Each structure stands twice: as C-alpha cells, then as structure tokens.
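Thread: "does anyone have the structure for this chain?"

Original post by V.I.:
We have the sequence but no experimental structure in hand. Need at least a predicted one for the grant figures.
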Amino acid sequence: MKWIPVIGLEVHAELQTCSKMFCSCPVVDPTLSQPNTAVCPVCAGMPGVLPVVNQKAVEYALKVALALECRINHTSLFARKNYFYPDLPKGYQISQYEYPLAENGILNIPATQGDKVVRIRRTHLEEDTGKLTHIQAEGQAFTLVDLNRAGVPLLEIVSEPDMNSIEEVRLYAKILHDILVCLGVNSGDMSKGVMRFEANVSLRPEDRLELGTRVEIKNLNSFRAMERAIAYEIERQTGLLENSLPVQQQTLGWDDTAGVTYPQRGKEEAHDYRYFPEPDLPPLVIDDAWIERIRLQLPELPMARMRRFEHQYDLPTNMASVLVEETPVAQYFENTVQAISGQDIPPIEAANWITGPLYSWMNTTGQRIDQLKVKPADLADLMKQVQNKVINLNTARSVLIEMLNTGKTAGAIITEENLGVVSDRTQIAGVIRQILHENPVELESYLSGKTTLENWFFGQAMRQLRGKANPDILRDELHQALEKRQNG
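Reply from O.Q.:
Generated one for you, tokens below.
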C-alpha cells in the first residue's frame, strides 16, 4: 500500500520589536547579552503586576496577516494558556485561542508538481518562553534557565495539513521565512532561535482521504532539522503501518545528532491547557483605518518580485529566486541595472556578477551587501569597462577584488596597474611567434594532428600578456600563425 504524507506546519516567529510583548523590557540578542538581565516583575510573573500590549508587535502581526491574505478579526482576545514549565515563570503563557488576530489566509508555493495553495488556519500573537540549557558537570546533570527571552513578542502562524511532501514543506517554510524578513518583522537569523518550526505529521492510504494519527515534532530550529525530522517520521510511521502497528498520538522531540525523533509526552489537546480569557488585558480592537494604514506600508513581496524579475529582466527562476531572498540584494541589483541602462548590457550580466563574485566575497568576509565598498554604480562602471573592451573578463574579476578591498574605482585601478586590454596585433603576433618558437615539441604535435593544442598555445600567450590580451584578436592571430605553419 502506498502511504501519502499529510503535513501541517506551525511557525513561531519572534517579532523584531525593541521591547517585549507585555512590558518595557528590551529585546536583547541572546548571543551578546548576559543571562537574566532583561527581566522585570511583569515578564517574571510577579504578583500584582499588569501587562500592557505592545502596539508595534500588533502592527507587525497585521503586516504578516495581510501579506498572507488573512481575514483580520476586528476584535481578538488574549487568553491564559496554562503551561507549567521552568522557562515560563508565570506558570502560564499569554496567547490567543478562540479569537485570534487573523484567520483563513493562503500562501502559494511553486512545487515541482505545479503551484499549490497552502491554507493558513490562523495567525495569532503570544509571548515567548525563556531558554533552558542542559549541562553535565562533575557527573551531575543541571538545567539552567535564562529568562531574557521570556515575554518576547511571538507570532504563531498555523497552516492547514495541506502539504504532502518534504519539498512542499521546505518551499512553504522558506517562502514564509523570506516574507517575514522582507516585511522587516523578523531578522530571519535561525541560528539565534528567532524562528522555529513545529511539524504535524501523519500518513494516510493513497485511496482514502481520512487522515491518520498525527504526531507533533517540536522546536525544529533550522530548515535542515525540519526536513530531516519529517523524513525520519514519515519512514518511522510507514514502518509501523506496514506492520499493522498503531501510530501513537504524541509530542516528539528531535535529536539532531542521532537523527531520530523521541517521545516527550502524550499529545495535548486544547482542553489540556485550560484556556480562559486573560483577565488583565482588554479585547484587542482593530479598526478598518488601522488595517488600511498597515496595508499601505506593505512592500513588494518576494514571490511577486521574483516573478517580476523573471519577466522584466529575463532572468531564470533560480537566479531571480536568489536575488529576492534579501531586499537589499534585490535593490542592489535593480540599482545596478539602472546604472547600465543604455549600454547594451543585459540585466543578466549584473545578476551574474552579484550572485557570483559578490556573493562569494560576502560568504567569505561575512559582510552584507550594504556594507560593500563597491556600490551599484561602481559595479556598473566595471561592467562598462568590460563592455567597451578596456579590460577583459578575467582582468575584471581581479579588478573587482581590488575594488572590494580598497574602495577604489575600476578606472583608477586599471590606470594605476596598467591593466588595459592589449589589442595591438603586432604585439600579439610577436608573442605568438615567441611561444611557438619556445615550444617546438607541442608545435610538432599540433602539426601532426593534435589540434586541441591550439587552446594550450592560447593559454600560454594569454599568460605571457598577463591576461590582458583581447581574446578575439589573440585567437585570430594564433589561428593564422598555426595555419601558416601547417601550410609550410
């Protein structure tokens, strides 16, 4: 029997506000701050304190809801979710349950089998928990808690179980990640835990629509962990079902080192959390005017920008997809294209420079594109030097590295280092005669029929000319010289 995976995803994204969801404590970088330094009586859950909703967090959540085409609920309620864990000092989490901020959205994904619509069940606000660190020391186990993250605004986006393959889940998660970064509501830096996935996975027989027993895999903090955990769980459940064994409804953890899921507890239902309305917070009321103000702030979203790049600039899908992953990169590309307009240079050439040498430099140095010393106008100038045959492509790559290191213009580097293209036929012909004279064995092999050696001679001559020769002229002069030798 063939089993069809049925997968839904819950995405928890921290909102990039300056302060926490219900208090004025700062949101701090967990990699730079000392533990338990951004904590106050409100987020520590002290008796008698009162929470206040962070307006900026609501605005960020509305941006996401509108980008996902959700229906915004004009009135939503916060609730207490009783969730007793050491990293939740109040003993409950303030979240939304029956009356969330937004519902019934969609996200289109370009899967291999064709575009697919994944339905968004709900988008709601809540507060994040603290962070537990488990350590072993002197033969004993300890758990330490850092409450800096407790109370940080968290947006939960819950999909319907509409995905049926790991590819679809990967695309959904990646596109959602890119949307959140594009909107400026989340940094997207998953190494710092600002976005986490929880996957609900079940299998159903190919000939039935009834869903099987599902499990939930918690706290997947990277795309790779998410994909591996789902793949493992599909394989595990398939083995159980094919041996007529039941799948237990459970909450599972993921051991990334061992590459296996493991049981944490029985799967909770809503009643297990004993939700009830948060008595210290009034209803959150969103009027139409507020919604429209937020709608007007929405930028062009990554998928729309990708399609536009494909059609407007005639770029292949994979290249357009890379360029739109980060808004500054997309802007850099379009600024470069504008700077080369009227030069008979196709936009794909700018895309090649950005996704090739510039991305390689950024990956090596850790710099962002807005930190580079080479601005769009500088890159455009370099491309014009190649187009006008002032330098060749190989030299241009070396010039770009010098530009990135020093901030000098292409023209200045070409002049200072005398890098201009050698197009003088007499000079090139002289170098070719010298190369043929100094390599009689290779010349004899060529004349005996090993014609591929022409490329070797070309390389030797180009090296002699320090890579500055006009390749068309060099190729022509070399061909004539070899032909003359061939004919005696």
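V.I.: this helps a lot. The chain has three domains: 3-294, 302-416, 425-486.
O.Q.: and The mean pLDDT is 92.
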